[in-house]
């Protein structure tokens, strides 16, 4: 029996690793499955764990007020040393490009434990864009023994970096597996659908518009947190304004933070009154987001 440890710390990681946790746990005769969370995104992480019914075996709970990347890295590295020493897993699986992934991979390397990198091979080839994610995933890629790439392009990136082709497997993106699981969960639960509809209405968008107005369509917009600030978001707002005026039969819905720095470009582009088919709504948890999608 192989002992597999999956480690993650943010909401996106949890969403994408949840299908792997569930699949490994279907085969207890073959795998002892351990889950460790770092708590890099505490509240948002817990929401996803609850959705997928995952109870971590270990929780570093690293987040403290005012932490920076130095603090996060040190706390994860120190915490993983003790856990990896006790468990002696056969392989450690990490995901993507977070500080959690890079630091856990380094901790496993220090104990000569093989690392599997899920969503491997994404590259911009500019270590400062995105920062620190691009360097995080490059470092993780150098450490990893096994590379699970979402696309053939990411596989090519790894081959260009000298990674053995026999250690790369193109798997697709596990976020699709997570999406299907949640869609099926929502489809089979009418009370949940009603509850999510109310939650969306409270956030600022009434899905009833899509039913009562024949032919009305929906464009759901989301962006990386870094694109929610400065010129990047200003360009996005201008594009949304242009499209919303051109396609009046389409509702454009953008869940976003209420931070004044985020709201400023909206007022600059749209003034006090947005188009009637344009909705900047409050941030959504994963379930209502999928329901809206």
From TrEMBL:
Instruction: Supply the alphabetized keyword list.
Output: Isomerase
InterPro entries from the xrefs? UDP_GlcNAc_Epimerase_2_dom (IPR003331), WecB-like (IPR029767)
* All copies of domain UDP-N-acetylglucosamine 2-epimerase, residue ranges: 26-293
**Is-annotated flag, keyword Mitochondrion?**
no
Q: What class of enzyme is it?
A: isomerase
Which domain of life does the protein's organism represent? Bacteria
> What EC number(s) does the entry state?
5.1.3.14
One GO term in the molecular function aspect is:
UDP-N-acetylglucosamine 2-epimerase activity
Which CDD domains does UniProt cross-reference here?
GTB_UDP-GlcNAc_2-Epimerase
- What SUPFAM superfamilies does the record point to? UDP-Glycosyltransferase/glycogen phosphorylase (SSF53756)
PANTHER family according to UniProt: UDP-N-ACETYLGLUCOSAMINE 2-EPIMERASE
Q: Which family does it belong to?
A: Belongs to the UDP-N-acetylglucosamine 2-epimerase family.
Output this protein's name.
UDP-N-acetylglucosamine 2-epimerase (non-hydrolyzing)
